[in-house]
TrEMBL record:
Function text: The phosphoenolpyruvate-dependent sugar phosphotransferase system (sugar PTS), a major carbohydrate active transport system, catalyzes the phosphorylation of incoming sugar substrates concomitantly with their translocation across the cell membrane. The enzyme II FruAB PTS system is involved in fructose transport.
Name of this protein: Multiphosphoryl transfer protein
Single GO cellular component term: cytoplasm
Organism of origin: Thiocapsa marina 5811
Compartments in which it is found: Cytoplasm
Principal subcellular localisation of the protein: cytoplasm
MF (Gene Ontology): kinase activity; metal ion binding; phosphoenolpyruvate-protein phosphotransferase activity
Family listed: Belongs to the PEP-utilizing enzyme family.
């Protein structure tokens, strides 16, 4: 570990602005022999792409990785500015800690800085001290003057094991989330120690703050009745790898991608997602969320906070499923990590304390708690771990929207093809972008290992990050070139630049255009079989997008969006208006409206649902609706009112018995007769094994079946698809699941009704072929997947599909199914 040399501490300085302060601390590093003078520009460059303000008047400017060749040796310098210098609007810095990091020897100083952040009085003392030794001792040893020179290591718990973290980026968000998920399954107290710091293994934020890098040795400790079992499970998870899938920064570009010498003035950025884009600029402005500072009723605010967090968890679960279907479990795991932030008790307790003790509103308290933790994460020297501060703020914003007094300047997503420019994009922002309309992404901040960059790559959108604030001044409509291969933004492309860009992307553009033109063509196999490809949606605005993407209707409308994030159930008028808006947007195409599917992982506080030991086996879906008939009747009335404006089908979720279906139909018919509405088709979701086994009897009462393959998989295999260790086994292409689908289709064929699939395997390329071969007639997929699924079917013959389906049914494992050729 290095020590902070007294000669590298300058007290009593003044600075005109942030740039001046960075240049001063850079000069100290030069004079101390740590860096070449040119590295000062690297310190400034880093500040343009990353905020180095930590909190409590401390900032840590450090250079960009590509300039490490100008570092002579690892070193740290401190510039004390007693009167402070404005770092960001509202942030004033008194200690500027300049870092030249050639190795990891500086990490202890960064750790000690993080400790100072939690002690406002100590930070203020260091900002005013007249003794360089005070600062040097505090940052080198982590002890205040007069304190013992060493502190005892945290006591080990009775049971423990040591392990080396082999994940390429250390214990970052996704592997840490997996570890937390496992730890939470045990009653034992579990801690993880890294060096002389320890954290609660059931807290994601606590683990991330340990800064555990690849190759680090950690100690996992446990105490309690099930401590041995907990350690065994954690050891197995660490030994076998905690991540589902990971992607390195190198994935942002490869050596064989075209490199172009641009003529026009350009901005150097960081390549994040390969590809070229040429088009007009659209500046993305995130909405401003306004919250009240105080509140009169702490009990009401605590309830508001709890409800908002629960609603945000449900949103993240839906987003996980959508991204998983579109981009794979590894990319979707980002949102599992986000959900884990919302389960962090320290984060929640801090917000609740502000509500109870300071009479703060739920929104203000949550904003403060998130902000404090995000600053601590941002203090991590490891770029990947520090980038998780953006993820935490993204999660915080998701909850904050539900607590807002008002949301100003709500951003409008583009409706024409543009190159999107933003200060930064959260994973949630990026996940909802339409690749057909967003030609490229440029952010002023961020890095290639951010979750935003990973999602951009999964969507196939060229992207550059870390371009600096100047790009935020580019006028909307300005034509630019974005080169995601080299990390360049060409601001005023010449004719030659345009020609080069067009040539480089010609093949890809032709292919995409052909897909767009073909998206409205029906999905008919080469031997004449028609498969309907429809959309899964969960919001009114998505109905129009589904049609534009080539969807032949909506195969699943998740109505839960109307019931979450609020204090009471939506009225009949509110529901009718939302459903009617979607029916009209479809312009004559059919929509299947699934009745309320609350329960399981979807709790709604205002319904006063009792806690259940096994909520997925309890009051959920149709069971809840039948137990609360007025809630059910209100929704049915709204659906029938919407049905007057276009073709609507009603679908009941989680039907497990014939009696449930008959009761639901009876209630539905009563409502229809009361309104004098026309009959509509009524179908059921096949999601549990009992429904498969009773499919012949159920088919006699239903007009169609829709197989929810995600739930059918977890109930068939008895595997929670969100389980940190077992989720990989929850594969919808497991032969057991496929045989259940086959049995369902055969029963439906016998009764003369059709079968659709609306789970993840409907958009899986292998699943498309097998389901088609099994006789499924409708595939309901996420909107971005529609064109690709239709194109795949048009290149397929039923003979091929049936042959593959037969072979899949005979396979012994899901791996064998996926290995079929």
């Amino acid at each position: 570990m290095i020590s902070l040399d007294l000669s590298a501490v300058r007290l009593g300085a003044t600075a005109i602005d942030k740039t001046d302060a960075i240049r001063q601390v850079g000069r100290i590093l030069v004079d101390a022999g740590y860096i070449e003078p040119g590295y000062i520009d690297s310190l400034l460059a880093r500040e343009r792409v990353a905020n180095t303000f930590l909190g409590n008047g401390i900032a840590i400017p450090h250079g960009v990785p590509k300039d490490r060749g100008m570092i002579k040796k690892t070193g740290v310098a401190v510039l004390q500015v007693p009167e402070g210098v404005e770092w960001n609007p509202g942030d004033r810095v008194h200690l500027v800690v300049g870092i030249a990091a050639k190795s990891d020897e500086h990490l202890q100083i960064l750790t000690n800085l993080t400790d100072v952040l939690g002690d406002a009085a100590e930070a203020a003392r260091l900002a005013r001290t007249t003794s360089p030794a005070d600062i040097a001792q505090r940052l080198s040893s982590g002890t205040a003057p007069g304190a013992p020179t060493t502190e005892p290591l945290p006591d080990d718990l009775p049971n423990h094991f040591d392990a080396v973290i082999t994940s390429p980026h250390g214990l970052h968000a996704r592997p840490a989330t997996a570890l937390v998920d496992i730890a939470k399954g045990f009653g034992a107290t579990i801690r993880v120690r890294h060096g002389d710091r320890a954290g609660d293994a059931k807290s994601l934020i606590a683990l991330l703050n340990l800064g555990i890098e690849s190759g680090a040795t950690i100690r996992v400790m446990a105490e309690g009745a099930d401590a041995d079992a907990a350690l065994a499970a954690l050891r197995e998870a660490i030994d076998t790898g905690l991540e589902e899938e990971e992607e390195t920064a190198g994935a942002a570009g490869t050596a064989d991608l075209p490199r172009i010498d641009w003529e026009g003035p350009s901005v150097a950025a960081v390549a994040a997602s390969p590809g070229l884009a040429l088009g007009p600029v659209r500046q993305y402005q995130r909405g401003k969320i306004v919250v009240a500072a105080t509140a009169r009723d702490p009990a009401a605010e605590l309830t508001r906070l709890e409800r908002a967090i629960e609603a945000a968890k449900r949103e993240l679960a839906e987003l996980y499923e959508e991204v998983k279907a579109r981009a794979g479990a590894g990319k979707a795991a980002i949102f599992r990590a986000h959900a884990e932030f919302l389960a962090d008790q320290g984060l929640i307790d801090r917000a609740k304390a502000l509500i109870r003790e300071d009479a703060r509103s739920a929104g203000y308290a949550w904003e403060q708690s998130i902000g404090e933790q995000a600053k601590t994460l941002a203090a991590q020297q490891d770029a990947l771990l520090a980038a998780r501060a953006l993820d935490l703020r993204d999660v915080g914003r998701r909850v904050l929207r539900m607590l807002a007094e008002r949301i100003e300047d709500e951003p409008n997503l583009p409706d024409t093809p543009v190159i999107l420019i933003a200060d930064d994009l959260s994973p949630s922002d990026t996940a909802r972008l339409d690749p057909a309309l967003v030609l490229g992404i440029c952010t002023a901040a961020g890095g290639p290992t951010s979750h935003t960059a990973i999602i951009a790559r999964s969507l196939g959108i060229p992207a550059v990050v870390g371009a600096g604030d100047s790009v935020l001044d580019i006028a909307d409509g300005s034509p630019i070139v974005l080169d995601g291969n080299s990390g360049t933004l060409v601001l005023i492309p010449t004719d030659a630049d345009r020609a080069n860009a067009e040539r480089a992307r010609a093949d890809l553009a032709t292919q995409r255009e052909a897909e767009r033109r073909a998206c409205y063509q029906p999905a008919i196999t080469t031997d004449g079989a028609r498969i309907e490809v429809v959309a899964n949606i969960a919001a009114p605005a998505e109905a129009g997008r589904a049609v534009e993407a080539g969807g032949e209707g909506v195969g699943l409308l998740r109505t839960e969006f109307l019931f979450l994030g609020r204090d009471q159930a939506p009225s009949e008028d509110e529901q009718a208006a939302a459903y009617t808006e979607m029916v009209r947007a479809l312009n004559g195409l059919p929509i299947i409206i699934r009745t309320l599917d609350i329960g399981g992982d979807k709790a709604v506080p205002y319904m006063s649902m009792p806690a259940e030991e096994n909520p997925f086996l309890g009051e959920r879906g149709i069971r809840l609706c039948l137990n609360r008939p007025e809630l059910f009747r209100t929704q049915l009335r709204a659906i029938f009112r919407a049905a007057a404006h276009g073709p609507v089908r009603i679908m009941y979720p989680m039907i497990s018995t014939l009696e449930e279906l008959k009761r639901a139909k009876s209630l539905t018919e009563e409502v229809r007769l009361e309104l004098g509405a026309d009959p509509v088709e009524i179908g059921i979701m096949i999601e549990v094994p009992s429904a498969v086994m009773m499919a012949e009897e159920l088919a006699a009462e239903a007009d169609f079946f829709s197989i929810g393959s995600n739930d059918l998989t977890q109930y068939c295999l008895a595997v929670d698809r969100m389980h940190p260790l077992l989720s990989r086994q929850a594969d919808g292409l497991h032969p057991a699941v496929l045989r259940m689908i086959d049995a369902t289709v055969r029963a439906a064929d016998k009764a003369g009704i059709w079968v659709g699939v609306c789970g993840g395997i409907a958009g899986d390329p292998r699943g498309v072929v097998i389901l088609t071969g099994l006789g499924v007639r409708e595939l309901s997929v996420s909107i971005p997947s529609i064109a690709a699924v239709k194109a795949q079917i048009r290149g397929l013959s039923m003979e091929q599909a049936r042959a593959l389906a037969r072979r899949a049914l005979a396979c012994p494992t899901s791996a064998a199914v996926r290995g079929l050729r």
